[in-house]
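As the next step, I selected for study a record pairing a protein sequence with its backbone structure tokens, which the following lines show:
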Amino acid sequence: MISAAYRNNANKYAAVHAESVIDGASPHKLIQMLMSGFLMRVNAAKGGIERGDFQDKSVQISKAAAIVGGLIDGVDIEKGGDIAANLMSLYEYINTQLFKASAENSIEMLDEVQALMKEIKQAWDSMPEMYQ
């Protein structure tokens, strides 16, 4: 069994490590990290549903929704035009589906939003360096 002190120290180390990674990351890399975090949170929420741990499911979905909120905040409609507006709509749809999935304990809805984010992330990951 892991002691509380060990777990506390491990959490502190993880927080410091995450902060140092974030501090050195480009805006492009930060978006990639947010998308990866979203995918991990949705996986964890699906695990919560499968285990019947609905409190954990709710926490994970809330964190995933907060990540989408951060992604929404980063969309610049003025500079991005129609592409940015479409991306904003897609992020809003993902958030709506997240909350429906939570209310209905629906792994299928979580699969859907996860697939959508994977597509967005794949496009983001393949962006030429000159646009990053």
Notes: The longest helix spans residues 77-104.
